[in-house]
Design goal:
Blueprint: E1 2-11, H1 15-22, E2 35-41, E3 49-54, E4 57-67, E5 71-78, E6 81-92, E7 95-106, H2 114-125, H3 128-136
Amino acid sequence: MRRAFETETEIDRPVAQVWRELTDWEHAPRWMTGIEAMSCAGGTAPGSVVTFWTRGRSRTGTIAAVEPERALIVESVQGGVTARYTYRLRPSGSGTTARLTAEVATTGPWTLLGPVVRGAIRRADAGQLDALRDVLEGRRV
């Protein structure tokens, strides 16, 4: 997998509150740009399937790993593109440091388009943590 981007932000809320918002699947469209709706069958556990709707299409991802209040990894395979999103939380003063790393692997005919796909993912998703912070801190509803 090749890194598409990595970003980090400080959120003025305790880790437990950030974790609740991060894993509140139905409310994720508040801070995930381009996501119209989201749900998760099986709760927040490894192997659970996350379904999200974007641009009128249904897509899925699978929770690959969970460390409650510390880390969440979600992988999505769409054709020859595999995207892995790793969210990490750690206490920082009275708040939380949140980090998001997105990695992408391409196969088959998608291999040549790898740089384009990574760029598109970076443009679409690199602002997630800032939007999450804004929701939690009351700057965005």
